[in-house]
């Protein structure tokens, strides 16, 4: 069995050959630096298929990255399975409370169909998604739950979110220019691969590791690894469709070993044009409809927070004092909150209650040239909060985080 093969894989439909007139997938950006990386960084020796895997033409890592960059797939439909295991602690009732609040079911009267909250569920556990796309103006993503389904539909300038469990509908619009159409959490192998390939530089090893089958399609396996020690990222494996260049599966394994932190891949895929009715939506009878009355171009003046994740540049502008230490996979973001004292403290019944003690119990106290602080760890991201009010965050080990804090003192 090929490394990416699973029992529920099905054969996809025929693939449309790339058309000269079709708009390139400009949203899928591979930095120019990727194409100019030194030969020592990207493996130039073609990898041969292992026995039992698809027998495909030889290809180098540089050629495969270029194939991904030139992929112009804009029409597809299929099923995606996504599993995320960051190793977060079990917060019990507190976790349920936070989830309930994020879903807009608290006193603020928000809608459970708001995608900015609903799709955060993808950050943990295993989920099945149905996806469909027909060019830049029509996409649909459905999150399948035990007894309900959540759908997010983009059709022209309209964006609809529908939660069948609560029978609630969210309706908003997007900028006709398309500037904010990509403001959503990553949900497909292509989304995750895009972010991974942005990290490719001279601190990265990129190779082709044979071939595999994903959703019944022959694919190459591109493997991205940090050259540096100290990163929590062990390896990133991307299965790339050999005909279209479309990423079909993305797997991130931690340097600590064990199960993947992120594993997302198609179990069924077709590159035929979806039916136009796939993207039609009319609020069901009796559904509660929440309108987002903030125009896409005027949200900064509306007093309402912008939907979806911001770009790195926007985040930098919004976080005064944010700076970066280190390079490549060992980069650490540093934010000076300006407040000394480390974690919030306070006795039972006081303003902070036992919050400081509770948070401290979830982390490890560390000391260094920087002073004293607490490290909070997941299987991928670690954060250090120091007593002088600084926060260090990165995909690096606890020891590397402390070293970064010492160096940034």
Automatic annotation (TrEMBL):
<dbReference type="InterPro" id="IPR052944">
    <property type="entry name" value="Sporulation_related"/>
</dbReference>
<keyword id="KW-0472">Membrane</keyword>
<keyword id="KW-0812">Transmembrane</keyword>
<feature type="transmembrane region" description="Helical">
    <location>
        <begin position="28"/>
        <end position="49"/>
    </location>
</feature>
<feature type="compositionally biased region" description="Basic and acidic residues">
    <location>
        <begin position="288"/>
        <end position="317"/>
    </location>
</feature>
<feature type="region of interest" description="Disordered">
    <location>
        <begin position="277"/>
        <end position="320"/>
    </location>
</feature>
<feature type="compositionally biased region" description="Gly residues">
    <location>
        <begin position="338"/>
        <end position="356"/>
    </location>
</feature>
<feature type="region of interest" description="Disordered">
    <location>
        <begin position="337"/>
        <end position="356"/>
    </location>
</feature>
<feature type="region of interest" description="Disordered">
    <location>
        <begin position="1"/>
        <end position="20"/>
    </location>
</feature>
<keyword id="KW-0449">Lipoprotein</keyword>
<protein>
    <submittedName>
        <fullName>Outer membrane lipoprotein carrier protein LolA</fullName>
    </submittedName>
</protein>
<dbReference type="InterPro" id="IPR029046">
    <property type="entry name" value="LolA/LolB/LppX"/>
</dbReference>
<keyword id="KW-1133">Transmembrane helix</keyword>
């Amino acid at each position: 069995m090929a490394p990416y093969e699973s029992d529920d894989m099905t054969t996809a439909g025929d693939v449309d050959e790339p058309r000269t007139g079709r708009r390139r997938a400009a949203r899928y950006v591979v930095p120019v630096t990727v194409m100019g990386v030194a030969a020592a960084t990207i493996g130039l020796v073609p990898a041969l298929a292992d026995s039992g895997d698809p027998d495909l033409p030889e290809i180098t890592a540089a050629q495969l990255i270029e194939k991904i960059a030139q992929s112009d797939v804009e029409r597809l439909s299929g099923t995606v399975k996504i599993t995320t295991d960051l190793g977060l602690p079990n917060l019990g009732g507190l976790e349920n409370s936070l989830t309930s609040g994020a879903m807009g079911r608290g006193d603020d009267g928000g809608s459970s169909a708001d995608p900015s909250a609903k799709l955060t569920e993808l950050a943990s556990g295993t989920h099945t998604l149905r996806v469909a796309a027909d060019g830049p103006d029509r996409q649909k993503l459905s999150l399948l739950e035990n007894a309900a389904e959540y759908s997010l539909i983009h059709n022209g300038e309209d964006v609809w979110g529908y939660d069948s469990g609560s029978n609630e509908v969210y309706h908003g619009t997007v900028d006709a220019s398309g500037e904010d159409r990509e403001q959503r959490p990553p949900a497909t192998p292509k989304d995750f691969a895009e972010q991974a390939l942005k990290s490719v530089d001279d601190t990265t090893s990129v190779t082709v590791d044979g071939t595999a089958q994903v959703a019944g399609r022959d694919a190459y396996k591109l493997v991205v690894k940090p050259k540096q020690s100290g990163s929590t990222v062990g390896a990133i494996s991307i299965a790339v469709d050999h005909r279209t260049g479309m990423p079909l599966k993305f797997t991130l394994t931690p340097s600590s070993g064990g199960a993947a932190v992120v594993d997302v891949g198609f179990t069924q895929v077709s590159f035929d044009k979806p039916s136009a009715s796939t993207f039609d939506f009319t609020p069901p009878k009796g559904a509660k409809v929440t309108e987002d009355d903030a125009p896409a171009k005027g949200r900064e003046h509306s007093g309402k927070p912008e939907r979806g994740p911001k770009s790195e540049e926007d985040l930098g502008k919004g976080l005064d004092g944010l700076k970066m230490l280190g390079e490549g996979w060992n980069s650490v973001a540093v934010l000076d909150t300006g407040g000394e004292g480390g974690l919030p403290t306070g006795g039972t019944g006081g303003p902070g209650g036992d919050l400081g003690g509770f948070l401290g119990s979830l982390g490890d106290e560390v000391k260094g040239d920087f002073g004293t602080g607490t490290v909070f760890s997941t299987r991928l991201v670690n954060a250090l909060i120091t007593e002088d009010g600084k926060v260090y965050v990165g995909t690096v080990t606890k020891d590397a985080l402390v070293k970064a804090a010492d160096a940034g003192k």
